[in-house]
């Protein structure tokens, strides 16, 4: 009788474990990328304005070209280009010599804007190390909470940064994210999506950008909405267009 109860107990534990097992975190990311129009972004040209700059993002499979266009104090057009071949700058159409430090600054600034604008598109990169943190609730809605860290190899200069994403449990949309950063003294941010819209089959959003001293580095706790949550800035994309590449790559 005791043996029979033990067997039943083991069976019950097994069933509970099966029911409470974590979802496939890579599948959650794939679903989020699909929900945001990732298939379109594989072969497309995206343009948008961010603050005082115009960005043109061209992706064609493994090939990419990101361009930031601004104007200098004399009114000349400055083009900063990041692509598979490296980083370069043009002023008035003429090449500009950049120091190693300037080249790194351009690469970081351009890549950062594009990265955040198209998230979660880049979360299937080989350097990404995802981990499921568990279910969560934000504003009465159910979410999957996912941590992302990066391998040093292929993770870029900011490979030590840590991100947490909240994917809606039913829609698979990325409605919130938080991250740590180490530049300019370091810190944390929590972003909340608003003004969500779909352009050319791709989901875009603006974000309210918050911080909190209560959180420390435990950015996974931002979903508790700490009392000292402070609005730092808003992240707004304007004049968005999406153009699929034709078969000849144009």
Task: Give an account of the 3D structure.
- A hairpin with a 5-residue loop joins strand 9 and strand 10.
- Helix content is 21%, strand content 45%.
- The chain is globular and about 55 Å long.
- By secondary structure, the protein is α+β, with helices and mostly antiparallel strands.
- It has one domain: outer membrane lipoprotein receptor (LolB), chain A, CATH 2.50.20.
Would you summarize the structure shown here?
The chain is of the alpha+beta class. It has four helices and 14 strands.
Strand order of the biggest β-sheet: 6-5-4-3-2-1-14
Order of helices and strands: HHHEEEEEEHEEEEEEEE
From the helix content, strand content and strand pairing, which structural class follows?
A: alpha+beta
Q: How would you sum up the global shape?
A: globular
- List the total number of helices: 4
Q: Secondary structure elements and their pairing?
A:
Layout: H1 2-20, H2 25-35, H3 38-41, E1 43-50, E2 53-60, E3 63-71, E4 77-83, E5 86-91, E6 94-96, H4 100-118, E7 128-138, E8 141-150, E9 163-168, E10 174-181, E11 187-199, E12 202-211, E13 230-235, E14 238-244
Antiparallel strand pairs: 1-2, 1-14, 2-3, 3-4, 4-5, 5-6, 7-8, 8-9, 9-10, 10-11, 11-12, 12-13
């Amino acid at each position: 009788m005791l043996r029979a109860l033990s067997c039943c107990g083991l069976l019950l534990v097994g069933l509970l474990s099966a029911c409470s097992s974590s979802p496939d975190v890579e599948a959650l990311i794939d679903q989020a990328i699909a929900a945001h129009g990732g298939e379109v972004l594989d072969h497309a040209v995206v343009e948008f304005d961010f603050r005082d700059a115009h960005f043109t993002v061209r992706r064609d499979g493994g090939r990419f070209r990101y361009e930031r266009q601004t104007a200098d104090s004399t009114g000349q057009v400055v083009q900063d280009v990041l692509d598979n071949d490296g980083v370069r700058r043009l002023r008035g159409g003429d090449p500009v010599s950049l120091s190693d430090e300037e080249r790194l600054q351009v690469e970081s600034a351009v890549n950062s804007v594009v990265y955040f604008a198209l998230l979660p598109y880049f979360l299937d990169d080989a350097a990404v190390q995802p981990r499921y943190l568990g279910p969560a609730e934000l504003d009465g809605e159910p979410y999957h909470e996912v941590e992302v860290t990066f391998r040093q190899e292929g993770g870029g200069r900011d490979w030590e940064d840590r991100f947490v994403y909240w994917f809606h449990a039913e829609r698979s949309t990325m409605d919130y994210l938080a991250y740590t950063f180490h530049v300019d003294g370091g810190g944390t941010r929590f972003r909340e999506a608003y003004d969500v819209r779909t352009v050319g089959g791709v989901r875009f959003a603006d974000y309210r950008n918050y911080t909190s001293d209560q959180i420390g580095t435990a950015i996974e706790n931002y979903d508790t909405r700490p009392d000292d949550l402070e609005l730092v800035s808003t992240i707004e994309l304007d004049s968005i267009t999406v153009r699929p590449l034709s078969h000849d790559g144009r």
